[in-house]
Every structure is written in structure tokens, then in C-alpha cells.
Design goal:
Blueprint lengths: L1 H20 L13 E6 L3 H4 L7 E7 L4 E10 L5 E15 L2 E14 L2 E15 L6 E12 L6 E7 L1 H4 E5 L1
Antiparallel strand pairs: 1-2, 1-9, 2-3, 3-4, 4-5, 5-6, 6-7, 7-8, 7-9
Length: 170
């Protein structure tokens, strides 16, 4: 009996390692070849000054792991406010109804009488509500560098789905 217990206690770690090696991917949302239309309010022209304008966005998944998003926002008020930007995404982890990713972005922004460049980098997640598999809600954290105020500013960034994005995928 002791010999069986000893054999089982030495076999369990080996079986655990084998099961990790054969683990399969979670049932993540595969968006390859799909276009998501929505908005993005993450660039500094939205946050920095009153009268900010969120941008319309189009996110396209090139592969299961890589996606690109184009961002355009405009307000013809006086003074005007606009953003034209691009973001790149790399999926890192897959969960049920959620993709966790790294992202980099850059944009040309104007707000009131100021204009500049905005650079973003960080991590985020896009969540899909079960039953609404074509609607993605994003949130992101990271860092932001901008010169829209006239001097270069570096700051941490945290954006809920109200800022980072909401999209409908076709």
C-alpha cells in the first residue's frame, strides 16, 4: 500500500506537467477578418480641454493576434478640435469572451488653439457580453506622451470602455 502511495505521489507532478503542456486555448473571440466600427475617446484632445470630441474608429483584425485601428474625430466649432490617429494591437492572452492585448498608438491632435502629437502605449482588454458576441467593450491602461499643451507631458493612462472604445463587429 505504501509503495502504491509513493508511486502515485511521484507520478502526480509528472501528470500535472503533461497536462499543462497539452492545455488548449480558451474559447476566445477570434476577430480575424472582421471590421469593428465604434468610437475612441482616448487621445489627449478629448481629455485635455473642454469641448473635446470623441473619435469614430474602425478596428480591423489582420490575424487572430494582430489588429489595427484608425481613429478620426472632428468638431468644426470655433476653435476647432480634431484627431487623426492609428493604434496597433497584439493579443497576448485569451479568455472566454475576452481578449487581453498590448497596444501602441499615435495621433495628430488639435484642441482650442493648440495642436500636437499624442503617443499611447499599454495593455487592455476587450470584453464580449455572452449573447452579444458582435459588441466589444474595451478598457486600457498604460502611458501617454503628448505636446498638445506646448510642452512634452508624460502621464499614466487609464481608460474605461467609455473612453477606450466600444465597437460593433461585422
Amino acid at each position: 500500500m505504501n509503495r502504491i502511495k509513493g508511486l502515485l505521489s511521484s507520478a502526480l507532478p509528472v501528470l500535472a506537467l503533461l497536462s499543462v503542456g497539452t492545455a488548449h486555448d480558451a474559447d476566445a473571440r477570434d476577430l480575424q477578418g472582421r471590421l469593428g466600427l465604434g468610437y475612441n475617446a482616448q487621445f489627449s484632445n478629448q481629455r485635455e480641454l473642454n469641448g473635446g470630441v470623441p473619435a469614430i474608429s474602425g478596428k480591423y483584425a489582420l490575424t487572430k493576434d494582430l489588429a489595427v485601428e484608425g481613429v478620426v474625430g472632428l468638431a468644426t466649432t470655433t476653435p476647432s478640435n480634431s484627431v487623426v490617429g492609428i493604434k496597433f494591437f497584439k493579443n497576448l492572452f485569451y479568455e472566454n469572451n475576452l481578449n487581453f492585448y498590448g497596444m501602441l498608438g499615435a495621433g495628430l491632435v488639435t484642441a482650442n488653439t493648440h495642436s500636437g502629437v499624442d503617443l499611447l502605449g499599454g495593455f487592455g482588454a476587450e470584453f464580449f457580453i455572452p449573447g452579444l458576441e458582435s459588441v466589444g467593450l474595451s478598457f486600457e491602461v498604460g502611458a501617454d506622451m503628448t505636446n498638445i499643451t506646448g510642452s512634452m507631458i508624460f502621464r499614466t493612462m487609464g481608460a474605461s470602455f467609455l473612453d477606450a472604445g466600444m465597437r460593433f463587429y461585422f
